[in-house]
## 1
Amino acid sequence: MDFGRVRRGELLKKVIVLENIPVPYELQYKNVKRINLRVHRDGRVCVSAGHFVPQRQIDTFLTQNSGFILQTLERFRKMREAGDGMAAGKNRIYEDGDTLYLKGIPYRLRVVEGKKEEVAPVGRVLLLTQKDVHNAGRRKRMLDAFLKKECQAEIDRLCQKVYPAFREMGVCRPQIRIRSMVSRWGSCQPAAGVLTFARQLVEVPESCAEYVVVHEFAHFIHPDHSPRFHAFLDRMMPDWKERRKRLNSRDWVIRQE
């Protein structure tokens, strides 16, 4: 390979066959001492290696880690299809034994038959009592309603926590709405005085949800994403970038699965 033609940080598209399965991956040559591998939730396989690491050594490394790569890709595929623990949307099917998240903590779903239908956390189990345990539609409605109620309580609490600082800046107390969202965590309508938050926020760690609340409140001061807006966030929440990264990477889901 002519390393002189590969620019530092240049992204190379590659494919390797692992256990008879073609696996595309992205390769970058960097100033690193070893070969690094990361499998992302969206299905991307990323590899970084030192500038003078030969391709055959990279191939050997990937082959040696084929089990991990293929198992992780399959796990993430199932998570995406199910909506994973983060996004119990219209395509999510809840089944006994599933993992759901409340404030970043995994709960095992247990579905039992009973006369009084309810959903209740019991230790690290989310116990759902249902008259007809085979009625998946009813089970989904029960869980969606439970998660929305829990989200409303958590977001209301976080809004109460951060609002005093914004009240001093002349921000009127906004109306808080919760709804299922698939592409964003929240939105702000400054003229209407409305903040809308994704129901899925009840599933993320509290520090991440608090970042979203501060972010949306900040739009009452700067209704855009200009440098002034980000400078304002720096003052209000100095570690907001770390919180945002953790929220969007969802690494807390990966670690606890």
## 2
Amino acid sequence: MRYGRDALANIPRTVHGGQAWKMGDIEDYSHNLNPFGPPECLAEILRASADGTGHYPDDNCTELKAEISRTLSLKEQNIVIGAGSSEIIRNFPNAFLERGDRAMICDPSFAEYSQQCRVAGAETVYSRLTEEEDFRMNTRDIASAKNIKALYICNPNNPTGRIEPRDKILETVRECGDRGILVFLDETLLDLVKGHENISCMKYASEYDNLIVAGSLTKSFAIPGIRVGYCVSSPHLAEEINKVRITWNVGYIEQNAARLLLSEHTDHVSRAASLMAEESRYMHSELEKMGFPVGKISDSFFCFCSLKELGIKGSEFQRRMLRDRIMVRDCASFGRRFEYYIRFSVKDRERNDMFLRAAENSMKHDG
């Protein structure tokens, strides 16, 4: 006898980057975190927050919502706080999708979207992004899709690094609204993009009754071990998401740390965004000079490229780079057609030069 829901029978666990911490002294380029690491004040913030752990956390996250509200010029009823954006991604299909509903997801994109739709019992269909079209969002697929209840957009898209302009996204949101389609827009990587203020749709979320925009502190403050994410939407959509949210989902320490980071240390994120924009150009130029097939320059701070012309699969290149204590992301987990692709972020100049030396070695030697 097998116990468990039929919908879960063939759902594997998703694969993610950022696992080099398990391997010791490895420089991890497989994740997309702020290269400065967490702000130096974080340890003191966490110690000071410990005094509040003797009581239940505020289930409404009132003070943290107030800070996000102030930053985005939205009302608190437009905001839902989650234990990382992962919880927001999980709550979306649980709030809005039912068995038989269909969600459209770009391919490739973040694996959790499909995973959580399937956990909720919904079906997924895919808009195939291609190298020939620079892995841009395919509005033709969206316009021609039938019987779609939800559309997922990741901006910048993970793993491709491509960024869609605000006008294109909001036009898609309006067209989807006319067809009764919800749009889940994931902006969790956008804060580390220079000029993100002119790209983000966060401040516009309350103007649409079919748009939910997700954000997170994980990448921008380099705190993946502290789970704080959020989403903004119309009050009605926020209320529905709150119905499936776990009570006390974000602890007192996390709430207080997030509030202080957002209120006093956003310059830490801005400095990183400026650095990464410069280093992205530098890395692209240097890789091209050595004959590395880096492709078109990334819109963001992480690169997605095929090593097929070198005849090296992503898994093999990952193995070679580890000889020089550097981890890249093997992108085979995004689907078989990406087995020759890798993804890597950028950091500061000293570490990027180490990456470049390792990449040149890995192109030449297969020992």
## 3
Amino acid sequence: MVIQALSFSLFALVAVASGVMVITARNPVHSVLFLILAFFNAAGLFVLMGAEFLAMILVIVYVGAVAVLFLFVVMMLDINFARMRQGLLRYVPIGAAIGLILMAELVLIITSWIGAPDGAQTRPMPPISEMSNTEALGRILYTDYVYLFQASGMVLLVAMVGAIVLTLRQRGGVRRQTIGTQVARTKAESVEVVKVRTGSGV
């Protein structure tokens, strides 16, 4: 129990510190790296809770795909972050209001769960000890929260389309590859035969 308590404290402390560094780091690449560190520590917390499936999904999906995608997008987009930070103080009241709303919602959720821990069960389910983590997660995800699962997929689709639109903006003075023009080239346009006399150069 002592080792588990120490491990939980270590993972939680590093995860919170990494989350703070994500929003306070001046370099966006450093923010993405701290985000990856936060994901790894959250996966460690899932392992300590016995949810190894969630830990594996967190590492594979978020660390292996989403965080790396964030890093590539940050490096590809030519964003002037110094210019963006000039109007940061204007959004502090809005951010504080959103943070207070989220905090109030979390308090309501935690207090309602403590007051009625069995109230969220809408249908009888087998005991948790008789199911694996994957089966229990699938039963809840694809029955009670199937519409929210589909909505999250639509949100990810819109985010993907937005990232593609941002990266494919037109720029002047940039030479682009046209596949159709290259494929349509004929032999006469591509090959030029030059006859060179003996002892002379081209």
